[in-house]
Amino acid sequence: xxxxxxxxxxxxxxxxxxxxxxxxxxxxxxxxxxxxxxxxxxxxxxxxxxxxxxxxxxxxxxxxxxxxxxxxxxxxxxxxxxxxxxxxxxxxxxxxxxxxxxxxxxxxxxxxxxxxxxxxxxxxxxxxxxxxxxxxxxxxxxxxxxxxxxxxxxxxxxxxxxxxxxxxxxxxxxxxxxxxxxxxxxxxxxxx
Length: 192
What we know:
Strand content: under 5%
């Protein structure tokens, strides 16, 4: 007979599973992250896992949407507090450092991520698309930032800057300091 959980226990287990998944995904990737291992670490049975998530993919979808949502919320607050290009620069630096912690955010073209995407339901894929769209609009739709260039150009520059994280291992200088330098020198060309 399946054990029942209180609402407080359910919330705790769900959050714990998400954190365990996030850690394993960043370290091992989607394919090598095992539901059995996550359940073992969370102290629940594999059968109990399906009380919380309909599938491994549902958990991964929730993790990426949660991480992206938290990043967007924090970056938005940073921009709102400063209400200028300096707030945008601070937000970009924060985003970059968060991407550095969560490599699955920038490895969307990897075989591992493609396997995940091919297993997502239509609804889950839609959630990921919505989350990615929110991230893309973070700077272009912000009422406190006025673009000095075409919005698509600004979005392309921002995306290019952040995706430079893929080169972090080959840079002869600190990748974070390099990113900060680029942001500090480009943000005035993008926003008033």
